[in-house]
Amino acid sequence: MNLNIALLPGDGIGPEVTAQAVKCLQAVEETFNHQFRYEEAPIGAVAIDRFNTPLPKKTLEICKTSDAILLGAIGDLKYDTDPTAKVRPEQGLLELRKELGLFANIRPVNTFSSLLEKSPLKKEIIQNTNFIIYRELTGGIYFGEKKLNEAGTLASDLCEYSEKEISRIAHLAFKAAKNRNGKLCLVDKANVLESSRLWRKVVSKIGESYPEVELSFLFVDNAAMQLILNPGQFDVILTENMFGDILSDEASVIGGSIGLLASSSVGEDNALFEPIHGSYPQAKGKDIANPVAAILSATMLLEHFGLYEEAMSVREAVDKSLRKGIVTSDLDAKSSYGTNQVGDFIADNIVDKDGSFTMNDENIDLGKSTII
Fold first, then answer.
1. 157 is catalytic
2. Considering 134, 142, 161, 280, which one is annotated as catalytic?
């Protein structure tokens, strides 16, 4: 298969982890005889620094003409600590989602058996965790009208949803539940918010078309608690933009590190794949960032195009690295392996399918993992 992939490394650790994802995609090319073409473009703080905009027109053009987009991370401390900044890195991602119609954010949450002890939650609570969050991505409070009075003492953000916006992502979530364990939970705040009551009305009606799917409801505060008390109860979670943003970050602690969670953002004609972690600027250039989330985002890209065997080969290589302890320090404080070494090990194990677990540690220390 031939694919044109737009690379948006972004800010902070984004370029470092994106580079490891590309290594793995190149290993897939070599192993399975595919051809992927990569075109890099700036977004976020780096784009502001160069072009005074977080989403240059050229970047948007590249994304629109590509088959898929692989994003690193967006954000910079100088904007986080400046509440008066009119132009912010995150605006680039919001605009990109809107321009490309990326209305559905899909975030799988599961655990790796070799990392159960790394989670801050008890092993018996998290060991059966395997669910997906479907987060609406282009509506709600993030995109609603924003007001600030002249004195700067009164502010408001409008949360607005249409039936169309709700129904299109609801259908995707119901189809996912139908192909999984047949359970869908809508998370809202329908006891308080009118927009949430519309969500319940629309999703309940659509649910009649999916009789094989068990539909349930949770208020967002209860859902936040249930994610920690019993994450294994969930199959597919459907929710609006801000609730999904918060809950998916909360869910990231279940597996032991936010550096493990991948995501895709899809629309009618476009798809973007990115780790859910932030730009972590404090770690920039230190070779300590966990590349697994970015690499697993690349597997979601492969799956999007029906390359399931290829995606599984990457996941197996990731699992091998976790079992062998070839991980960054967020997963093992005593680990001496860096971002590049972990990426090399995973990429090499996509190419070399040898089942042997004997490693040449000297080569790994040099950043050249080799199975012997």
1. no
2. 142
Active-site residue flag, 319: no
Pairing mode, strands 262-266 and 271-275: antiparallel
Looking at 11, 76, 188, 245, which residue is catalytic?
245
Q: 114: pLDDT confidence band, cut at 50, 70 and 90?
A: confident
Place of tokens 């995109």: 143
**Would you call 361 a catalytic residue per the annotation?**
no
d(CA 134, CA 97): 15
The CA distance from 88 to 75, in Å, is 8
Q: Which of 221, 354, 361, 365 is catalytic?
A: 221
User: In the annotation, is 337 catalytic?
Assistant: no
pTM: 0.86
Residue 279 has pLDDT above 50, yes or no: yes
Angle at 249 between CA 271 and CA 327, to 5 degrees: 85
Q: Closest by alpha carbon to 24, among 311, 274, 282?
A: 311
Active site residue 189: yes
